[in-house]
Amino acid sequence: MCFLSVKNITKRFGALTVLDNIELEVADGEFLTLLGPSGCGKSTLLGIIAGLERSSGGVIAIDGQAVNDVLARDRDVAMIFQSYALYPNMSVRKNIMFGLKMRGVPRRERDAAAVRVAEMLRITHLLDRKPHQLSGGQRQRVAMGRALVRNPKLFLFDEPLSNLDAQLRAEMRVEIKRLHQKVGTTVVYVTHDQVEAMTMSTRIAVMDSGHIVQLGTPGEIYDRPNSLFVAKFVGSPAMNFLPGALVEDDHGLVLDIGRPGSRPDCSVALGRIGRRELSGRQVVVGVRPEAIYLAADETREGECVLRRPVDVIEPTGADTLAIFNVAGSEVTARLGPGLNLAVGDARNFVLEPTSFHIFDQQTQLRLDIGRERRSESQFTQFAGCELGQQRPGREDKVLLLQAENLTDRRSMQAEDRCDFRGLWKRVAANLAGRHRSHSRGLCRSLMRV
Ligand SMILES: Nc1ncnc2c1ncn2[C@@H]1O[C@H](COP(=O)(O)OP(=O)(O)OP(=O)(O)O)[C@@H](O)[C@H]1O
Ligand SMILES: [Mg+2]
Asked: Which residue minimizes the CA distance to atom 22 of ligand 1?
C-alpha cells in the first residue's frame, strides 16, 4: 500500500520553477531517501510534505488522505532538521517530553514515554543533563527522541547528520537504521551524501534541478545508473569515465575506447549481443574502480587490457587505490591491500567489459547495448504513438528517465507495495498529451532506452 503519495507536485518562486511535476509513491515502512546536489529542491519537497511550504500545484496524500489543506501540526508528521534546536534550560527528559506536554498528555504517560524512547536511543544515562553537557551526536539523539516520542505516522529528516564529524556521522547512520528497523515508521530522508543514501535507504530518489531522475533500490542505482548524472553522483571512489565510440565490424558491434579520431586504446567486441543500430554513437564508458584488476599478461581474449604506468598510489588500509591515465582521463583502480606497487611501475590493468556502463554522449542517458528488453507494443500501447526520427529535448529526457525507472523490471517487482503501473500510465498520458507534436521522436527514443 502507498503510504505517502506525491502527485504532480510543482513549486515555483516567481518565474523560478524549483520542483517540476514530482511524482513519488512511498510504501508503508519504507526508508526513502531524496539524494541530490545542493539546490536541487530536496528541502523544498520535504517542506511541502511536512506542510511547512505550500506547493504551486499537485497533491500530497498521507495514509490515503489528501493533506494539502491540513496544517503542518495536524499532519502527524515529525521533522528532524540539521540544526536541532533543543531548549537549553530544560533537561534532556523535559526536552523529550515537551511536545507531549503541549498536547496535554498526563505526566505519568509522558515520563514513561521519555524513558522508553531514551532506552531505544541509548541515552537513559543522559536524561537529567542539559543540552550544553552533551556531544553533538548525543544532542542529535535527543532531537530524534523528541520526534520519536510522539509516535508520528511519518518521519521526515533533512540532512540531520551534516553538522557531525565523520565518525559520529557513521555511528548515527547505524543508529537511525537500527531505529527504523525497530519502529518501522515510514521515513523520508534528505541528504546530498551518497554514502548515507546507499547505506540506509530501502529506495533512493535521485534529484537534479527539481526533477526525480532515477528512483530505485540502492543496488539498482549503483548497478544500473540510468544517466551520467546519476553515475557521477553515486559511488566512492567515483566511477571512472572514458571516451568511446560504438562501431560495427563483420561480427557485430564493437566498443572502441579512446579519444575520438585517434587509434583506440582498446576495443571490445560486443558481438551479436550488441544492437547494431547503435553503431556510430559517440559514448562515455563508465567503469567502477572495483571493476579494474591487475593481470600478468597483456593479451586476454574479449577483455580490455591496458599497460600503463601508475601515477599515484593511495593505500586506504582495506584497499590500494592506483591512479593511471587512459585517453587523457584519470582512472582509479581499487586493488587489494598490501600490494607491491610503486609509482612509475607499468602494470597491466584489466577493465572488466561485463561491468561497463555505456552512456550516449549526446543524451547522457544509459544505453542498453544488449537486445531490446521491451517490446515495441509495450511502449506504443502506453504512449499511443509511433516511431519517428526526432531527438528528445531536456523535458523529454526527464520523462524518458521516469519511464525507464517505472518499466525497469526490478522496480516493477516493488509494485506489490506501490502502484508503479498506475504511475507509469500517468507518465505515458503525460507523454501523449504534452508531446503530441513530437511524440514520434519520443517513442523512438523510448524504444532505445
Ligand atoms: N524562498 C525562496 N525564494 C526563491 N528561491 C528559493 C526559495 N527557497 C528556495 N529557493 C530555491 O529553490 C531551490 C531549491 O532549494 P532547496 O532548499 O529545496 O534545495 P536543497 O536541495 O535542499 O539544497 P541543499 O542541499 O543546499 O539544502 C534553490 O535553487 C533555492 O535557491
Ligand atoms: Mg536543503
From this structure: 43
